[in-house]
């Protein structure tokens, strides 16, 4: 038994199977609706239910971002109990992105970038045709069906290789496997390309990247893609970490700023160690940005990293006058396992 979902205002429709989320079904039908984390935590997939009944696979964790009384629903968690009519704006495919694919890949290389960040290179099968935008992410699909999401730190020009930056989380999760037992030639299952976090070129406003920790990964990809495309758009990159050893690709970024005058880089340490002898910026990265750039309206912001940092940046920047449509984010980094 399937249900039909009618989309307004586009008048498109698609079918959805029992227990299948509305977002999954729409993407399967090649209908691109807004989304990001696919885990019920970011609110990006919010839509309005005009008629019909839904229920949730799991109660969303971003309840504060939706008003159920007004018909708000989250497409990534909602399943249909009847035919539905929903209001959600279709996104036109402004750039080349493959349909979402699941495929095996091989661990090609593991390299420790710092005490708790691993650079993992994966290799997809040579025959796979894949295209993604710098900044998108992939899911590693574990044997029990759970997923872990990681931003892709490389660009599509590096295919069949994909670079990930994985921070160790000591909770017995997949990331511990990466550090402790994973080896070259291991096989993983991945699903990609995912997410809507990529550079938009519908404006020439300068770009302000604000990243926390391994939130640097998608920023790295986006800057590299912009360099390759010779965009020369002003880019300012604030990178917030705890101490100096967490700036795991500092030298590479400094090298970019020396070669490309349109890139500026401001590292920010929240807890510098005495031996860091740190003379640079200190504090929470979003607060430093607010102090340094009172006129945020002159920028388009791309924020990535821990959800709490992204949420704080979003709240503060909008309060400071940044229009909501000039804020893009990738807030899934530590979101819970997804089915
Ligand atoms: S809450 Fe649905 S995509 Fe993030």
Automatic annotation (TrEMBL):
Source species, domain of life: Bacteria
Domain FAD-binding FR-type: from-to ranges: 100-200
Required cofactor names: [2Fe-2S] cluster
A Pfam match: FAD_binding_6
Single GO MF annotation: 2 iron, 2 sulfur cluster binding
Residue ranges of domain 2Fe-2S ferredoxin-type in the record: 3-92
PANTHER family cross-referenced by the UniProt entry: NADH OXIDOREDUCTASE HCR, PROTEIN RFBI
Protein name in UniProt: 2Fe-2S iron-sulfur cluster binding domain-containing protein
């Amino acid at each position: 038994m399937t249900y039909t979902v009618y989309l307004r205002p586009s008048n498109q429709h698609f079918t959805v199977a029992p227990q299948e989320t509305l977002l999954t079904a729409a993407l399967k039908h090649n209908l691109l609706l807004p989304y990001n984390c696919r885990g019920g935590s970011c609110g990006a997939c919010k839509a309005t239910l005009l008629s019909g009944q839904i229920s949730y696979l799991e109660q969303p964790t971003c309840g504060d971002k939706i008003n159920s009384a007004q018909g708000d629903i989250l497409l990534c968690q909602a399943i249909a109990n009847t035919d539905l009519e929903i209001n959600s704006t279709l996104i036109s495919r402004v750039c080349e992105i493959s349909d979402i694919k699941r495929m095996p890949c091989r661990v090609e290389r593991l390299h420790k970038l710092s005490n708790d960040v691993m650079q993992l290179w994966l290799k997809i099968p040579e025959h796979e045709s894949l295209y993604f935008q710098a900044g998108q992410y992939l899911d590693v699909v574990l044997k029990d069906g759970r997923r872990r999401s990681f931003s892709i730190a490389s660009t599509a020009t590096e295919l069949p290789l994909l670079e990930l930056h994985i921070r160790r989380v000591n909770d017995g999760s997949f990331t511990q496997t990466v550090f402790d037992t994973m080896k070259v030639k291991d096989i993983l299952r991945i699903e990609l390309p995912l997410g809507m976090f990529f550079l938009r070129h519908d404006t020439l406003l300068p770009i302000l990247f604000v990243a926390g920790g391994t939130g640097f990964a998608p920023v790295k990809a986006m800057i590299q893609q912009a360099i390759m495309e010779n965009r020369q758009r002003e880019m300012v990159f604030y990178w917030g970490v705890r101490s100096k050893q967490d700036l795991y690709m500092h030298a590479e970024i400094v090298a970019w700023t020396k070669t490309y005058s349109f890139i500026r880089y401001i590292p920010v340490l929240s807890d510098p160690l005495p031996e860091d002898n740190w003379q640079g910026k200190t504090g929470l990265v979003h607060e430093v940005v607010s102090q340094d750039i009172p006129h945020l309206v002159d920028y388009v912001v791309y924020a990535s990293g821990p959800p709490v940092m992204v949420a704080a940046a979003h709240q503060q920047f909008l309060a400071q006058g940044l229009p909501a449509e000039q804020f893009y984010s990738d807030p899934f980094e530590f979101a819970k396992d997804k089915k």
